[in-house]
Amino acid sequence: MDEAVRPHWIAVDWGTTHLRAYAMDGQGGVLARGHGLGMGALSAGDAGASRQANFEAALLGAVEPWLSDRPVALIMCGMVGSRQGWCEAGYLPVPQSLFNLCEALAEVPAKDQRLTPFIVPGISQTDPYDVMRGEETQLAGYVSQASGANSTVSGRVCLPGTHAKWARVESGAVIHFSTAMTGELFDLITEHSILAHSVSDDALDSEAFRDSVLAAYHDPACLTEALFSVRAEGLLAGEDGVRARGRVSGLLVGAELAGAKLEPGEPVTLIGAPKLCVAYSEALAALGLDAALLDGEAMVLRGLSDIHAQLVERRAISA
Asked: Total domain count for the chain?
């Protein structure tokens, strides 16, 4: 039971909608999992000490059964380090080595003396302007598991999600990245636009998805017109909601892939939720591109584990 768990340290992936905590052993294994409120629910309407107290209380709600009398290190990533989060962790500019995130961790003041929290910084870019939080830790996990002790990992990496990231990695460093609001646009269109009446709640037609990926990829300027045609086809030809959902998803992903400016034959590594990565791999396959799929949770835990090990090595925390 969780009451008997005594972690070596605690990993925390704290985004806008969810807090995911992991009691970790000394070898990077997960002993137990905890959950709590996301940053969005905690930062709304509060400021300063009140907001910080809310974050600490939410964290304790997820991890307190694991705590003992001795202080335990917590390595956190995600929107918890944003300006509206618990403690602003700042950004590191590109080009940025993914092996050096430990050097810029933000130390979080906590009232509970059992907690020694740190937050991983995000990565920023000014040409064009862009930022990421949380994905840098997944990318750190990716280069770590791919490279071992060296820093030679290079390639294109996509992290699908609400705000999908496309990163170019060279020799273990992020040299450029871009963000596509594909997931958020999909939610807005299918839940709050006129197309909410046309699409199914969950299932989508795979053939319609692939055809729409190709249509938007080869002619991204057609996107807004093609989206409305989903509504018109439903009215005039009786298109079912499963096909409509496939078309909307495919059009948005296809436009995103066009913006990614992929080279012919360029392999892509996908990091994220398995179901979403499978959809992106099918879209890439429609374009004749190969994709390797990596689990997002596994990569964030690998990244946080490496950062924890670096802290121990530098004697910033006890082993």
From this structure: 2
